[in-house]
Structure formats: C-alpha cells, structure tokens
Write a structure and sequence with these properties.
Number of strands: 7
Bound molecules: zinc ion
Helix content: 10-25%
Largest sheet: 5 strands, antiparallel
Distance between the termini: 73 Å
Radius of gyration: 24 Å
Shape: elongated
Strand content: 35-45%
Order of helices and strands: EHEEEEEEHH
Number of helices: 3
Structural class: mainly beta
Length: about 160
Amino acid sequence: MSDAFILYIDRLKGGAVQKLGIILSPEFFDIHESDLVFQDPVEVSGEAYLAEEELVIHLSASTVARMPCSICNQMLPCSLAIKNFYHTEQLSSIKTGLFDLREPLREALLTELPKTIECPGGCKERETIAPFLKKHPEAPNTPDALDTYFPFSDLKYP
Ligand SMILES: [Zn+2]
C-alpha cells in the first residue's frame, strides 16, 4: 500500500485500466514553510491507462492546506481539490517502467492554492487596520458601464 502511487506500465499493457484509490501522506508535498502547512492526508481517486504511446492519469484529489489569514495571520484551513485532472506522459520518457503519480498531483494541487486567504466571514482584525488600508478609487470606464446599455430598450412593441 505504501507505494500505491507508483504505476507499473507493464500492468497497463493490453488495455488494462487501473483504478486508483489512494490516501497519501501529506509529506510528499515536501513543503517546509511557516505559511503553508500540509498536515492532512491527500485522498486520491481516479484511473490510469495507456493510450497509444502515452500513459494517461485521470484523477480527482482533495486535501486541506493551512495558510495564515492575510489580515491577522491566524492559521486557517483551506480546502484544496482537483476534479477530473488529466496528466499524460510519453511512455518513451518513462525509462524505468514505473511512474510516480505524486509529482503531477503535487503540482496540480499547488496550482489550486489561493494567493491569500482570510478568516471566514471576513477577518475581525480588518476593522482595526482599516484606517491604514488605502481605499481603491472607483475605476472609471469599467465594463460595468455596459450594464446600463440596453440594446433592446427602444424596440417598439405592437
Ligand atoms: Zn483573520
């Protein structure tokens, strides 16, 4: 079970579809930062098969990352999920006949991370620091102006 994330290309030859149902330890993220922490397992489901000269991995995965609120710095859980993620790999580049699906999975999950998060419902600390935040001036000529344009407003009804 410990190497369930390793795909054996030989076993997929002849059109076999390998069902994947894996719980990965979060250590595979190999991230050691104070403002990005993975401590929950990563649940992975999906399938792997060969198509022509390619290995195809089709996955859904979910876990929870922990990141600090961008206002008050309190660590917050942040659900991460990918659905119907596809990764293909040329068989010619898999020299060993083994493919570790953790690498593409890791990248796909990290891509989903938000740049910043904030306490649910808006950080309470926001009011404390509000006087120090510059308000964004309303930008003129935003596409919002289009909302007031009704192309059919002068149609005459019989
Ligand atoms: Zn906060």
